[in-house]
Amino acid sequence: MNMLEVKHLYKSFGTTDVLKDVNLTLEKGEVLAIIGPSGSGKSTLLRCINCLERAEKGDIILDNIPIATEKDGHTEYLKEDELRTARLHLGMVFQNFNLFPHLSVLQNLTLAPINVDKKDPEQAKSEALILLEKVGLSEKADSYPFELSGGQAQRVAIARALAMDPDMLCFDEPTSALDPELTGEVLAVIKDLAKEHMTMLIVTHEMGFAKEVATEVCFMDNGIILERGKPQELLVNPKEERIRSFLNKLLSV
Amino acid sequence: MEEFARLFLELGKGLGITLSLFGLTLACSIPLGFLGSQVSLSKNKPIKFIYTIYLTVIRGTPLILQVVFMYFGINIILIKLGVDPRIDRYPAALLAFIINYTAYFSEIFRGGIQSINKGQYEAASVLGLTKRATTMKIVIPQVFKIVMPSLGNEVITLVKDTALVNIIAVTDLMYLTYSAVSRDVSIMPLFVAGIFYLAINSLVSAVLKRIEKRMNYYRI
Ligand SMILES: Nc1ncnc2c1ncn2[C@@H]1O[C@H](COP(=O)(O)OP(=O)(O)OP(=O)(O)O)[C@@H](O)[C@H]1O
Ligand SMILES: [Mg+2]
Description:
- The complex is a heterodimer of chains A (253) and B (220).
- Chain A is an alpha/beta fold.
- Chain A contains 9 helices and 11 strands.
- In chain A, helix 4 packs across helix 5 (150-163) and helix 5 packs parallel to helix 6.
- In chain B, helix 1 runs antiparallel to helix 8 (173-184) and helix 3 crosses helix 5.
């Protein structure tokens, strides 16, 4: 069953075409890593899927709900309220965490369940504590975001996304803002999620990590998905010369 | 000493008006200023344009002029129009103050809102929060912390600005002080008034400091 279907997605900023014709399907339980050079449109793709940006052409179908549909050459999205509900199937983890600084770690986790899902606060709280334990941060429940290290903040952000019980998670370079010694703890949490068969779409520059957790890898270049394949094939033996030079450059850094 | 006590009681009668003017202006201007900031940040061009004219006029002309206009100006217009109800001194003063302070608060809030990271809105949006919930739960608490120092300055200024209303003979602390000075030909009333204003502002500062302290538990 397809969790996500993206068809012929097109998006431009002014005169630059950022997404030219992106096609993507993601099955339930699949972990898809997206790699590619800077400026190739990876973040924009994720942001379009999350409706933080509006695509101009193409379709997006999430969990069998057509959230964006192309009609007469341009894409129309669901109405605001329907879109908000449909999008709850999807969680998003940002590069810069975007935790709410004025709320404690626990409140960061319970805000949406209480306000959006109308969950009982006590119920939300106990579920949040379970999630914090899962990401290894039980003892930080009453801390505030400024008191956390980057790695801890990102793990809280992941727990916050999980608190809405999404069917799929998107990550935009979840470890890029972290000191190298802190990336491990975040990647470990994502690996655990992969083991539980959480459907995930992960933009990353960590090739080792992609190789390890991704069921498939996409290489994005210049607004299109140039190649998609099993990590062992695409990351070790890519067909495209473009990918080979990209990987070589990464290795030589 | 006796004179001091007498003046204390006499001028104290103006305190009620001074304090109510201060309190009511704040109570109205802060919420209105927040609404105004939403207008400033909205995408509705015509309304925004009109609002900008309001901001420019109010912030570009003296408050004392606005107070005089609100009382004499409006009443002259009402008389010319042959309309009977007149605007009284105190309501005129209060209205002028609210209109004036709303403009300043509105700009302070606008700055505060604009300084909030775009990522905060995005995080709220992917979690499914409505625009309203985002404003109430995410934006307003953070904006208040950010704007608190500037807001505090305005509040202190407001205490002192209330003295302007004596120009339209509202019997506030300053009006009574002025009367006493010219009646007694003494500088004593000025000291007494000074003490009153200082006392009010010390209290206001203490309250502001407490609020700032209470918002110190986090950093943005
Ligand atoms: N809001 C925007 N306005 C204008 N141009 C934008 C905007 N967002 C992205 N772009 C442009 O779109 C292109 C693709 O950007 P995007 O952030 O999707 O790339 P990326 O693949 O995520 O790169 P990186 O690896 O550096 O994160 C870039 O050329 C960028 O300058
Ligand atoms: Mg990016």
